[in-house]
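Sample pair:
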Amino acid sequence: MPTLRKIALATAAPLALATAGIAHPHGLSRSTAADWIQLHVILLPIFPLLTIGLLVPLWHRPRRDLAGVATVLAWVGAFVYAAFYTGLDAVAGIAAGTAVEHSAGTENLGVIKHPLYDMGEALGQVGAYALVVAVLATAVALFPKHGARVVPGTVVLLAAGWSFTDSHIFWPRGVWTMLGFALGFALLIGGTGRTAPVGTPASRSSLRT
């Protein structure tokens, strides 16, 4: 697959999440509950796709070495993120919105939504930190083959990942966080477009082709 197509594939999810973050209600109330629910239902399949930016450059069978172990760890981290952050979206997004929408007008919304927020936050924290681990493992897996070219993308992704632990996609920081993921994935995939670090002689097999 051409590098530009890989970049387009990897950045589609974070760019979609950044766009959704601009439209995300800043708070959950009876007046915003319907929009809150609808948005989180739409985002339910999109949040896991954030990991495509890590899976694309790791799309190969892991070898029996440190890079191979790191590849498997990155896959596991990506899976844990996808599972637990989907839990955040379902609990603090869909469930909390539904509970508020169908609450009686005299009920205290804080009592209804805050326990769901707390559970969703706990799930989201596990997912977000698993994504940071996946980024680090991806860098370890790619470095032996691509050298320092993986560093710029990794640095941007780690910064975005750390911000993601408490920003979600809320405007403004959450939106900038998603744009940071898009930039980091583009840098990482662009840096791994070649198979050997600069200055490394090509292998005999590649010379024959």
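The chain is about 70% helix and 0% strand.
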